[in-house]
Design goal:
The chain is mainly alpha-helical. Helices cover 73% and strands 0% of the residues. The mean pLDDT is 88.
Length: 128
């Protein structure tokens, strides 16, 4: 029963994380890390797929090994967050909501700026 629950949560996290690519207030990374955690405890097959075959695998492996992001990722992520939040702020007409989005943007950018950046070693590309 626990395996089925973890698989369900893992796949739900994959779906929500994938939606987070398009929706600015839905975070992709925490959902993918949750999916990796659930799959590691319930399905070696899905865990292997997530780490080595999915588009998110490189980033998840890097985070699990170094607790850091690969070079270049931080800048692109910050730029994308600023663009998507700016788009939302531009089209929202409620002043208090613009302020709330601006505060969330500032906090998110500060968090992302504090994340460490570590380069990969060559043997990180081999499945274990």
């Amino acid at each position: 029963m626990q395996r089925i629950i973890l698989l369900t949560i893992g796949w739900l996290a994959i779906v929500l994380g994938t939606l987070g690519i398009l929706l600015p207030l839905l975070p992709t990374t925490p959902f993918m890390l949750l999916a990796a955690w659930c799959f590691a405890r319930s399905s070696p097959r899905f865990h292997h797929w997530l780490l080595w075959c999915s588009p998110f695998g490189r980033y998840i492996r890097h985070w699990q090994q170094y607790r850091a992001v690969p070079p270049g990722t931080k800048g692109r992520a910050i730029l994308l967050v600023i663009l998507t939040f700016s788009f939302s702020i531009w089209f929202v007409h409620l002043f208090w909501l613009r302020i709330a989005l601006g505060v969330m943007l500032a906090l998110l950018v500060l968090f992302m700026l504090r994340m460490p950046v570590v380069t990969e070693t060559t043997d990180d590309h081999k499945p274990r």
